[in-house]
Amino acid sequence: MWIFGWKGPSGFSARSTAEQVTQGIDGTALTAIVIGLASSGIGVETARVLAMRGVYVVMAVRNVEAATKIKQTILKENPSAKLEVMQIDLSSMASIRKFASQYISSGLPLNILINNAAVVIPPFTLSEDNIELQFATNHVGHFLLTDLLLEIMKNTARESNQEGRIFNVSSIGHHVVYREGIRFDKINDQSVYNKYIAYGQSKLANILHANELARRLKEDGVDITANSLHPGGIATNLARHHSTLYGFVSLLSNFFLLKNHQQGAATTCYVALHPQVKGVTGQYFADSNLAKPSSLATNSELGNKLWDFSFKLTFPN
């Protein structure tokens, strides 16, 4: 699809850029948190384009110094951009709780929450909370942060009379998982750890989390949607833990078989701002169009089990 640039029902394709899918959209009344920005990549492009459309963007990052440089670069291009940098480590529950507390205390509203942080195929590592690092960062951290910020999003939706949007940046890698999808009893078992399958497991969790959250928000009658998306194959530094894979990804990028950052951020910006997505919830997107995830990703029983498991991890008492 990307090779030929075929357009889907939305009018966009895998070749569309973040600027193109948000053309003409006014986001000046909106505030968004973008989680996870490296020194380059789709997180940076997402922040840049949202700010270009007038959105007040909070860049929630682990490396404040690097993010501050990114902010300065964006401001040079767009002096009217509204950007703020706040520190967060998605692998640390203490850091997440601190961030949420500071954000709530700031008095800022929150219309859009973009759960974008990820680590990819590292050697087996436990987070400071003793959870396998990919599951901890890619899923548990987003689950906890979303829960902690949900009340402020509900208040913002009510007071602004504007729909709130939450979405998780997943991956096509969610197809590469265990037969049962998620091995709840072996999350931290190093003896059976496979970094590729562990990554897929965390990305499957992203979709299941969004779907279950969408169901619960709909049940509560709250004007907030929850979705997930695959940004596309992009040459980023996420694969830095595996030199062979990173080299292969870079090679493919050189031959134009992968998206660039402007195209990679398109689906994120589309789901964040486009009026076509209004009221759409519990869905999975790719190439700025609705897409079909794996059958496990739509398993509501698995989603509910993951929710309960995640809640016990993040709120043990």
Order of helices and strands: HEHEHEHEHEHEHHHEEH
| Structural shape | globular
How many individual helices? 10
Compute the separation of the termini in Å: 48 Å
Mean pLDDT: 91
Question: Care to count the β-strands?
Answer: 8
Instruction: Give me the side-by-side strand order of the main sheet.
Output: 3-2-1-4-5-6-7-8
Radius of gyration: 18 Å
Derived from helix and strand composition plus strand pairing, the structural class reads: alpha/beta
The biggest sheet amounts to: 8 strands, mixed
Low-confidence stretches: 236-256
Strand content: 5-15%
- What level of helicity do the residues show? 40-55%
Topology, element by element:
Blueprint: H1 18-21, E1 31-35, H2 42-52, E2 56-61, H3 64-77, E3 82-87, H4 93-106, E4 112-115, H5 133-160, E5 164-169, H6 195-220, E6 224-230, H7 243-254, H8 261-264, H9 266-273, E7 284-286, E8 289-291, H10 300-314
Parallel strand pairs: 1-2, 1-4, 2-3, 4-5, 5-6, 6-7
Antiparallel strand pairs: 7-8
Helix pairs in contact: 4-5, 5-6, 6-10
What does this structure look like?
- This protein has helices at residues 18-21, 42-52, 64-77, 93-106, 133-160, 195-220, 243-254, 261-264, 266-273, 300-314; strands at residues 31-35, 56-61, 82-87, 112-115, 164-169, 224-230, 284-286, 289-291.
- By secondary structure, the chain is an alpha/beta fold.
- The protein has an eight-stranded mixed β-sheet with strand order 3-2-1-4-5-6-7-8, with helices on both faces.
- The radius of gyration is 18 Å and the shape is globular.
- The termini are far apart.
How would you summarize this macromolecular structure in one to three sentences?
This protein has ten helices and eight strands.
